[in-house]
């Protein structure tokens, strides 16, 4: 059985490759920086779901019971986004979670070991699914400007950084309506990082990993990219004003509040 014959699945993998290319051209993906996982279960046919595995089961550190039997595309550990963009199936793999949610196996197309951030990605998918959300995408990347902000302690407060970036341009309030969650520094790839991140998802769709990177969850990979891109734009406006020698005024509270009814946004914070 050839996964490549599944047009809907290949179209989604094409969109993942498109975004991987943006991450590289944006300068957010040095070497193997960043990783992507997408729950593609709805796009996989019943007979494909039963494909024989090409690796033995690999135990997960923590079970993900809400994901039993689910299928994901995940980028490979150590793989470069600029190559994911060209050959997503040679730089990532399709994995199937066991029915008890305690392990996974690779079912296609090559035995490419998944990202070292798989514990975080799967715990996030597990959390999102068990809370009834249709968010199928987790996107993690290393935008220079946003990581730069995360080196400044006063900014590492959710309300402070959200207010600052929202106030640089109206679109930011509209495109990132639930604001930014903060995860204080943790070693990349650890279960501690995973736990700290899922806590933030209760309130936010975008999370900063202090001194490391940013992460977005959502229904669509292009939307996840757009959220991070808009935050990066705000950070650039802030930094260019500071570099020109002045503190940017920022939108006023009233200007920000007026966007809520005008764009039908949920009021938070
Ligand atoms: P991987 O190559 O294992 O995906 O790691 C990249 C990264 O950004 C870790 O946070
Ligand atoms: Zn990273």
What does this structure look like?
Helices cover 38% and strands 16% of the residues. The chain is α+β, with helices and mostly antiparallel strands and 269 residues long. The protein folds into 2 domains: 1-118, 3-Layer(aba) Sandwich (L-fuculose-1-phosphate Aldolase), CATH 3.40.225; 143-255, 3-Layer(aba) Sandwich (L-fuculose-1-phosphate Aldolase). The longest helix has 23 residues, at 221-243. The protein is elongated. The termini are far apart.
Structural class: alpha+beta
CATH class of the largest domain: Alpha Beta
Strand content: 15-25%
CATH architecture of the largest domain: 3-Layer(aba) Sandwich
CATH topology of the largest domain: L-fuculose-1-phosphate Aldolase
Estimate percent helicity.
25-40%
Tally of strands: 9
What is the average of the pLDDT values?
Answer: 97
- The order of strands across the largest sheet is 2-5-4-3-1-6-9-8-7
Look at the structure and name the CATH superfamily of the largest domain. Class II aldolase/adducin N-terminal domain
Rg over C-alpha atoms, rounded to the nearest angstrom: 19 Å
Shape: elongated
Terminal-residue CA separation: 50 Å
The count of helical stretches stands at: 11
Bound molecules: 1,3-dihydroxyacetonephosphate, zinc ion
